[in-house]
TrEMBL record:
It comes from the Bacteria. This is 3',5'-cyclic-nucleotide phosphodiesterase. Pfam families: Lactamase_B_2 (PF12706). It comes from Caldimonas aquatica. CDD domains: class_II_PDE_MBL-fold. Signal peptide: none annotated. Residues 17-197 form the Metallo-beta-lactamase domain.
Length: 252
């Protein structure tokens, strides 16, 4: 399985794209501004979009991608997310005021987007991939995703604060790669707590429950916090921790 990092930033700035991962060439995990680096042909090959939650930096690419590929595909793209996330996407974005509703375009009979609700604990089979919906703790209903690979599970937490429900599940699986957010530095630990994100000290507490052999990759750092977060992560005495960068590709 190939994981292409399209975006892994917690906000936009020069060179910073918000969260999106392309799995092989047919599954998109979150749809932030990083989707814009795909060609039209690459966008048109996407069959499924797995969304962690409804915040703009994770969904902005969905309506824009739909507009870009209309007329380039016959079958709908399926958007998988919690019912609350799907409802927010339709009510607040694809509502004919902010953007057209591509669950009804180009026609109700043959729409470009199909919405598929998921629940925590559900296992999906998409394009030959086994995918599990994982718990997350955020300010809106949210999930993470795990994808089974020949080397073990690729796990992406999505946006989350301390997440006690996740670690017993991961203890039961061989994890090949953990992608976990650390949005703020410890000097902004109170902001991280209020917004249900992680800072390095909170990350260290979370990782106590993870096998130290599992490589850990950091996503969702705020652009203005990158240097401080990276410095604080380097001081942690646990696991192999590296920051993701847009454009990276991992083979699992």
């Amino acid at each position: 399985m190939k994981v292409r990092v399209l975006g892994c930033s917690g906000a936009i700035a020069a060179g910073c794209r918000t969260t999106a991962f392309l799995i092989d060439d047919d599954v998109l995990v979150d749809a932030g501004t990083g989707v814009g680096d795909l060609s039209l042909e690459e966008m048109a090959r996407i069959e499924h979009i797995l969304v962690t939650h409804s915040h703009l930096d994770h969904i902005v690419g969905i309506p824009l991608l739909a507009d870009a590929v209309m007329g380039r595909r016959r079958a709908p793209i399926t958007v998988h997310a919690l019912p609350e996330t799907l409802a927010a996407l339709q009510r607040h974005v694809m509502n004919w005021v902010i953007w057209p509703d591509f669950t009804q375009l180009p026609s109700k009979a043959e729409p470009l987007l199909r919405l598929a609700p998921v629940r925590v604990g559900q296992q999906l089979e998409l394009g030959g991939k086994r995918i599990e919906v994982l718990p997350a703790e955020h300010t809106v209903p949210a999930v993470g995703y795990g994808i089974e690979t020949p080397q073990g599970w690729w796990v992406y937490t999505g946006d989350t604060g301390p997440n006690p429900g996740l670690w017993p599940l991961l203890a039961q699986r061989p994890v090949a790669m953990l992608v976990i957010e650390t949005a703020f530095s410890d000097r902004e630990a109170e902001v991280a707590l209020l917004s249900q994100h992680l800072a390095p000290s909170a990350l260290a507490e979370e990782l106590r429950a993870l096998d130290p052999r599992v490589p850990v990759y950091i996503t969702h750092m705020k652009p203005g916090e990158q240097a401080q977060v990276t410095s604080e992560l380097a001081a942690l005495d646990s696991h192999r921790i590296a920051a993701l960068e847009a454009g990276q590709v991992y083979e699992l």
